[in-house]
Specification:
Oligomer: single chain
Structural class: alpha+beta
Radius of gyration: 31 Å
Shape: globular
Number of helices: 18
Helix content: 25-40%
Mean pLDDT: 88
Strand content: 15-25%
Strand order of the largest sheet: 9-10-16-15-12-17
Length: 761
């Protein structure tokens, strides 16, 4: 009788099947099988916050199938992800299968390798109810906040809104940064840069002040005073300081630092980073010569910097063999995990340092290769010797003022032979000191240099930058808000709810986000308080460790929250939390005001802002577009046959690019539109294309290497039931999951149903 191993995802099941013999059957639960009901609160607050779980809609047949397999199995191993969420899924599976907790066989592994899987199977344990209760507490807290607050938002701001516990804090962070930017008053300052020379030696230096200290030039008058004192432009070397500095490598990645670095270096959004990391963790077929299907990295949701002794020893052997013994430090590097971090897993590292990225590049999608290379190089570098730099700081004096030039040369590259940090990490690693020149010429005390060029420049201070995904994740981590598994869902949720939008890479609050944040700060200050939210995360950690009581934490939270809710329901009518109206050019023919856009039962319409005194409304009529003369649109690429310009043409099957030398050259190229959606098969980008009779379909940019295509439009949103990609049905106001055993679907607005159906703007 074969044993049964239950994992979360089908791709992980395929990888593990190859490691276990014929005596094991591996199947996937496809995420959670039970959850709180969508139609009701699902939490009995009066009876100890008891949660009423039900089978997730669309999972009925899958649960029956799992039960059947479990009934015919010798042993059942629950091998879901090694975190709170995975522990809870195992607990729900045990409940669905009728297995008592004390009889469960729970197995976990930090990496999906043959040795790790076999070791886990040999050492099963019971489902850890502390981990389960930590997940349950988070789920119940979020459900209470969402279900109790949402009706208040509908009543006060706009129908259909949803409130989230941690998401509201994230929205507040972005709103407050926008308020800082709006309130920022720029101030003037000046810099002076000089180009100095002595024979064939040239160097750039900057004004820093006088001999008493640094001076900031705040206006032109102060700058001119310095310029007039420079006299004939002779600069004397006041001092030359040289030193040797050792520069240590950065530690291996945590979830947060991986997302930050992949965002800066690769330009990936957080959801894309985590999707690709999940694929690398669960397993990729890297060819029979490399071992077939392999999990390439360790578990990607972690805030630990710990590295196993085996991995550290493997890195030592690799570094010594490839670079030589001097590139490995005298003692192995051990990185200290920050206080408050969960240390259940290792840092993110390659499962085997011997699997070099370049060796398996042809088996990986472009995204998989880029991220694996980043993780692999960061880990190897983290175990290497420090770099050694010779630094030089030269001060020049003229007219009683000091100008400074600084630079460095690399005398021993150390870890830099493997990995270079992003610019922000460099500054952090260097203590924030800015070097003007990579290499300075030989400069001696007392020498004189002549100013070939003196360049004063006026500047203005700039407001703080808007958050992007990387900087927001960094802020959340620093404040202790959320955990590695929640960073991406937080960002995805606030974007999906239209509290925040993207402007390039920047995250910008919408009027809806600003108004909602104002209400939350006024009426529910605890919910959006940074420290309160961070303390709640610590409480959840305490439950996981068995140090805190689930019932007490829920009870304490609800007592304060229910009081705030009761007060808000009484006072909310007295305050105004209306969304600002969008003004139109339509003039009200009754009172002369510019009308605004309002939404009603039958869509948008123009209404007088003087309501209720003036109740005038008008339908919104789109302006007729003035047809312009056809212009030749030249592509930003050349003909692949003859090198001539490519121009946009219209044909039977839609728009396409053709060589401008037609008919002498008949080269053409299909016009496509890129969607911000990753291919579910290989991770490449999805393109919108024309089929026969101008019908739109969607396929992968890596065709024909990847054969993914669909008449329905793929979305970046994941299915809440099974976690797979969602699609918008062609020609219907319907979003569905294509997964055969799922069946999830939901209706969308008519406007949303038409998004993305055109290639031509």
């Amino acid at each position: 009788m074969a044993n049964l191993v239950i994992v979360e995802s089908p791709s992980k099941a395929n990888t593990i099947k190859g490691y276990l013999g014929s005596n094991y059957k591996v199947i996937a639960s496809k995420g959670h099988v039970r959850d709180l009901p969508k139609s009701s609160l699902g939490v009995d607050i009066e009876n100890g916050f008891e949660a009423h779980y039900i089978n997730i809609r669309g999972k009925g047949d899958l649960i029956k199938s799992i039960k059947k397999e479990a009934k015919n199995a010798g042993k059942v191993f629950l091998a879901t992800d090694p975190d709170r969420e995975g522990e809870a899924i195992s607990w729900h599976l045990a409940n669905a299968l009728g297995i008592p907790v004390e009889q469960t066989r729970r197995v976990t592994f930090n990496e999906i390798t043959k040795s790790a899987i076999k070791a886990a199977i040999k050492n099963p344990r019971q489902v850890d109810m502390n981990l389960v209760n930590a997940q349950q507490t988070r789920r119940i807290l979020d459900r209470i906040v969402g279900y109790k607050l949402s009706p208040l938002l509908w009543k006060s701001i706009k129908s259909g809104l949803s409130a989230g516990r941690v998401q509201s804090v994230a929205t507040r962070i972005i709103v407050e940064r926008e308020e800082e930017i709006k309130a920022f008053v720029p101030s003037e300052y000046w810099t002076i840069e000089v180009l100095l020379s002595n024979g064939d030696r040239a160097v750039t230096a900057r004004f820093i002040g006088d001999k008493k200290g640094n001076i900031k030039l705040q206006n032109e008058e102060q700058t001119n005073k310095v310029l007039s004192a420079l006299g004939n432009g002779e600069f004397k070397v006041e001092s030359v300081k040289t030193s040797v500095r050792r520069k240590a490598p950065q530690p291996p990645f945590t979830t947060s630092t991986m997302q930050q670095e992949a965002s800066k270096k690769l330009g990936f959004q957080s959801a894309r980073i985590m999707k690709v990391a999940q694929e690398l963790y669960e397993g990729v077929n890297i060819g029979s010569e490399n071992g077939g299907i392999q999990g390439l990295i360790t578990y990607m949701r972690t805030d630990s910097l710990r590295v196993s002794a085996e991995a550290a020893e493997a890195a030592k052997s690799y570094i010594s063999e490839r670079f030589g013994n001097k590139y490995y430090p005298k003692t192995a590097r051990v990185y200290k995990t920050r206080s408050g971090a969960q240390d259940a897993h290792e840092a993110i590292r390659p499962s085997s340092v011997a699997i070099e990225p370049q060796k398996i590049k042809k088996y990986l999608s472009p995204d998989q290769f880029k991220l694996y290379k980043l993780i692999w190089e960061r880990f190897v570098a983290s175990q290497m010797e420090s770099a050694e730099l010779n630094t030089v700081v030269a001060d020049f004096t003229a007219g009683g003022y000091i100008f400074r030039s600084s630079g460095y040369t690399v005398t021993f590259p150390g870890y830099m032979a493997m990995y270079e940090e992003s610019e922000e990490e460099k500054k952090h690693n260097d203590g924030g000191e800015e070097m003007q020149n990579l290499r300075l010429p030989t400069i001696n005390d007392g020498e004189s240099f002549k100013a070939d060029k003196i360049d004063p420049a006026k500047h203005f201070t700039e407001p703080p930058a808007r958050y992007n995904e990387a900087s927001l994740i960094k802020f959340l981590e620093e404040k202790g808000i959320g955990r590695p598994s929640t960073y991406t869902p937080i960002i995805t949720t606030i974007l999906a709810r239209n509290y925040v939008v993207r402007d390039g890479k920047a995250l910008v609050p919408t009027p809806l986000g600003e108004v909602t944040t104002k209400l939350m700060k006024d009426k529910f200050p605890d919910i959006v308080d940074y420290k309160f939210t961070a303390n709640m995360e610590d409480d959840l950690d305490g439950i996981e460790k068995g140090e805190s009581d689930m019932q007490k934490i829920l009870s304490d939270f609800y007592e304060d929250f229910s009081n705030e809710l009761e007060k808000a329901e009484v006072t909310i009518e007295k305050d105004s939390y209306e969304l600002p109206s969008e003004e139109t050019d339509i003039i009200c023919d009754k009172c002369g005001r510019k009308m605004v856009i309002k939404s009603g039962k039958f869509g948008k319409f123009a209404a007088c802002p003087g309501y209720p005194k003036c109740r005038n409304t008008k339908p919104l009529v789109e302006k007729e577009e003035v047809k312009e003369e056809k212009k030749v649109v030249v592509a930003d690429f050349k003909c692949e046959k003859c090198g001539a310009d490519m121009v946009l043409r219209n044909g039977r099957y839609g728009s396409f690019y053709a060589c401008s030398r037609y008919p002498e050259c008949n080269f053409t190229k299909q016009k496509t539109k890129e969607l911000d959606v990753a291919c579910p098969k290989c991770g490449g980008k999805i393109l919108t294309k024309y089929g026969r009779n101008r019908t739109v379909f969607y396929s992968c940019e890596n065709y024909p290497k990847c054969d993914f295509s669909s008449w329905d439009m793929p979305l970046s949103e994941k299915c809440p039931d099974c976690g797979n990609i969602l699609y918008r049905k062609k020609g219907k106001a319907l979003v569905v999951c294509h997964e055969k055993d799922c069946g999830y679907k939901r209706e969308v607005s008519a406007d949303e149903a038409n998004i993305g159906e055109e290639i031509d703007g």
